[in-house]
Amino acid sequence: MFSPLSNPAYRRLFIAQVSALLGTGMATVALGLLAHDLAGANAGEILGAALSIKMVAYIAVAPFASAIAARLPRKTLLVSLDVVRAGVAITLPFVGAAWQVYALMAVLYTASAAFTPAFQAMIPDLLEDEGEYTKALSLSRLAADLESVASPVVAAVLLAFISYNNLFVGTALGFALSAVFVVRAILPRSAGAAPLPFIRRLTAGARLFALTPRLRGLLAVSLATAAGGAMVFVNTVVLVQSSFGLSQQATAWALAAFGAGSMTAALLLPRVLQRIPDRSAMIAGAGVMTGVLLLGAFVATSYPILLGLWIVMGFGYSLTITPAGRALRRSSTSQDRPSLFAAQFALSHACWLIAYPVAGLVSAEADPRAAFLVLAGLCAVGVVLALVVWPRYDPANLAHSHSDLDADDPHLSEGERPDRQSSWHAHPVVIDEAHPRWPRPDEK
């Protein structure tokens, strides 16, 4: 599980990720308190606007940032974005109006929209062995889950001694520490091929999603993931504090139960994915989330039952989200990988932009039981779409023919070729100049 940390470059990047996650978690707590200072009972309006800015930045900015960043050195890009995020964090304690919060959040989330896909796209180049990469994905999932539990606890302890404004200093330190470890890491160079034109770089990720069956399936699973996750993140507080009449601490423990389920799956997945394909694990996870949502509509009548449901929901959530990097890695070359990760970043957040309002509006206009049912339907749509568009036959080496190539073409020497006089061969397929479309099932 922890063997990827023996790679010095990955170890430093992992520490950088954890540092930035802890800083971001403290900023989330501090931002809520800042919003209350600025707007009192209307603090939700500021937070809602800030989250909307976040989603717009993640959806719209990530592909453009990836296309522009393709010409920049990786280390310079990541360190510069960390410095920008630290600068925003250190400025936040001095704001005195809502519009200033919005402006700073726009800068912060724009930097994050550029940083996260670029960071994720480097890991496959550092850990070329698929088993090690799978463990790295589980470690990243584990770090994210620990952040959701640890950051509020750290913030609560610090608030006993300092004002909430000083939490932003902790956020800045987290980003600064991230930059230090990125500087110390020896990062792989970008592919040596000549950079593609800007429009090609901008649209490369979306084109891969449109033409690669497993990526279309991944997008469908992302819809299911967002449906289940939105129910947890939006309506836990409603269920715990309004329906059950419990405290804020009870809400935190319910979210921790979800995190515990997710961490359990992350720990088990490296071994699981040695036995079953990514498709099976991800669709099974989405099916688990659908079942929990359906069941929740009828049995989520007490706090202990909700905790049990959220543990299982977290398990299914991690099953859907952790193997995604493997599917992205299989579907791209090193040159296309940054664009593909940026497209996944944007498209998955577009799914959340659908699920979040559904979770909130249905719960507010009807009740949480209705939200369970509606989101179960949305989650089931994702499961069915994934089953339809992601073929069960998805081998590492895909047999296919090139009727437009001569039998002695150099490309046909790649992979396995049973007959030197035919145009058939088998190798890992990605959409590129040699494979402008995905081989049809009858070409196996």
Automatic annotation (TrEMBL):
| Domain annotation Major facilitator superfamily (MFS) profile: ranges | 9-394
Q: Where is this region: Disordered?
A: 404-444
- Record InterPro entries: MFS, MFS_dom, MFS_trans_sf
Name the PANTHER family on file.
Answer: INTEGRAL MEMBRANE EFFLUX PROTEIN-RELATED, STAPHYLOFERRIN A TRANSPORTER
Give the subcellular location. Answer: Cell membrane
Could you give one GO CC term from the UniProt record?
plasma membrane
- Protein name (record): MFS family permease
Q: Name one GO molecular function term.
A: transmembrane transporter activity
Q: Where is the composition biased (Basic and acidic residues)?
A: 404-422, 430-444
Report the transmembrane regions from the record: 12-34, 46-70, 168-187, 217-238, 250-269, 281-301, 307-328, 340-358, 370-390
Q: Which PROSITE patterns does the annotation name?
A: MFS
Q: Which UniProt keywords apply?
A: Cell membrane, Membrane, Transmembrane, Transmembrane helix
Q: How does it sit in the membrane?
A: Multi-pass membrane protein
